[in-house]
C-alpha cells in the first residue's frame, strides 16, 4: 500500500504508530487516542509544526500502527516499543552507569536477595541503585543478618537431612529442611524484606513488635529475640535519616537541569516521609533550544521510568506540567490499585523539595559534564607533555583482550578523538592465531592486524596507541609495530591495579600520576571503555557458542538447519518452547521430533499434538 492509502485506512481507535525512514528504520514511536486523527496530523500542510517535528516529517517514508483497547494500553506499549527500537526522535531513558541493585527474587518459590547490575522486567523486586557500589554489599549483608533468607541456589523441597553452616550462624531460616522453617514462616520473612526495600519502616516495625509480643506470650523466646534484634537494627537505620516531610507519604520527586544538548535528570525517592534514595539520568544529544519541548521530554521520561516496573508511590512531584499527565496518572493508579496524583507544586514545602532536587540535578550536571570533563584540549596538551609525545594526541586508539581461561578470546579497539569517544570507529577482533589464553600473543596479533590494514588502505595512523596491561602487553604491541616498521608510532600501556603508565622507550621509568589528575582520569576512561567493549563482545561470543553447542549436539542438526531454525524462530528460547507442529515445517518431522525430545526429555511425546500435513 502507498502512504496515502495507508492514511485513508487508519482506524479511529487508540493505539501506537511507528514512523520509518527510507531504509525502513523506526525513527519515531508515538501513541494516540485516535490513530486516524493523530497520524494524519503529521502530513497536513496547514499544521504549524515545531522545527523538530518538521525534520521528522521530512524523513518519514512509511509507518506502521498497532491498535489497542485503551489509551493506557497504548501508553505502556509506546514505552516498550521505544525501548526496543531506540528511535532517533524519541526521548530514551537510560542510566548513566550500571550501579548495583539488590534483587528480591519474588519469581522463585523461596525468594533470595542477590546483588545485580541489570534491572529486568522479570517479576522480581529491585532496590537501588547503590552509590557507592560497596553500599550494596553492606546492605545485602545487613538484610541477610536481619531477615535470614536463603543465599544458596539449590532447589528447595524440604527433603534435606540437615541445614548448612548459614543456618547455624543465624544467616538462613533453613527452608531446605522441612522441620526447621515452614513455607508460611519463610513467606513472612520475604514480606518483611519487601516492606524494608519499599521504605515502609513504620508498618514493618509495627508488625515485628506485634510478632515479638505474641512469641513472648507463647514462650517462644528465641523467636521473640530474633524479632527484637530486627527491631533494633531498623531503628538504628532510621536514626540516620534527616530529610522528612510533615505528612508521611510515599513520593517520587523529579527535577532536571539542561544546558544546550546536555541534560541531567534527578529523582529523589521518599518513603514514609523520608528521602531514602536517588537516581540520576543523563542525556548528551538533545535537540537545540528551538526544537526542545520540555513538556514532551518530561512526559516521555516519566512514562518510560514507570513502565519499567518501578515502585509506584502515592504522589509524583514534577518541576512543571507535561504531556499526557492524565493518562500517566490513570496508568499509575491502575498499577497501584489506589489513586495516584502527579503534581507540579508552585509553593510551600513541596515546591522547596522540587527545587532541592533541581539543585542536585545542577550539581550532577556539573560533575559529569564540567568538573569531570575539564577543558579537554588542555588535558590532552598536558598528556602530550607527560608522555613526551611528538604531537598533540587528537586521536587515541586503545586495545583490550578478553577471555575466560583462553576460551572465546576476543579483543576490542576503541577510538577517542579530541578527548571524546568516537563510537562509529570502534572495532572488534576475534583472536585467530594466539591460543591458550596468551594475552601477549593476542595483543601482538590484534595490533599487527589493525595497523597492517590501515597501511594497506592508506588511512591515517593515530597519534597515540594505548594498550590495557603492563610491560608484557606493551612489549607485545611494540613488537607488532616493529614488524610493520612503525617504531615511531607513540605507544603506552596502563596497568590496572597500580594505575601506572608505561611508555615505549622508557619502560624502566613508569609515570605515576596523582589519583585525581585529569590526565589519569582521561586515560582511565579510555581504558575502561575498551574493557567494557571487549567484555560485551566476549559475552556475545559465549552466547553464540552456547547456542551452537547445544543445538548442534542434536543428531541430524547441522549448521544449515541451525541457521534455518534461528532465522525462522528467532532464538534458542523460542526453539526450546516450540511445539512439534511449529518445528516440522523447517526441519521435517523426524528431526523435529529429535529437537523436541532434546528439550523435553521428561515429557511424554504423546502429550504433543502430531504435526499435520498440508
UniProtKB/TrEMBL annotation:
Domain UvrC family homology region profile: 253-481
Chain ranges of the UVR domain: 202-237
Subcellular localization, as worded in the UniProt entry: Cytoplasm
Annotated GO MF terms: hydrolase activity
Taxonomic superkingdom: Bacteria
Keyword Transmembrane: no
InterPro entries membership: GIY-YIG_endonuc (IPR000305), GIY-YIG_endonuc_sf (IPR035901), GIY-YIG_UvrC_Cho (IPR047296), RuvA_2-like (IPR010994), UVR_dom (IPR001943), UVR_dom_sf (IPR036876), UvrABC_protein_C (IPR050066), UvrC (IPR004791)
Signal peptide interval: none
Residues annotated as domain GIY-YIG: 12-91
Parts of the chain that traverse the membrane: none
One Pfam family cited in the UniProt record for this chain: UvrC_RNaseH_dom
Keywords on record: Cytoplasm, DNA damage, DNA excision, DNA repair, Excision nuclease, Hydrolase, SOS response
Record text on subunit structure and interactions: Interacts with UvrB in an incision complex.
Function according to Swiss-Prot or TrEMBL: The UvrABC repair system catalyzes the recognition and processing of DNA lesions. UvrC both incises the 5' and 3' sides of the lesion. The N-terminal half is responsible for the 3' incision and the C-terminal half is responsible for the 5' incision.
HAMAP family on file: UvrC (MF_00203)
Protein name per UniProt: UvrABC system protein C
Originating organism: Chloracidobacterium validum
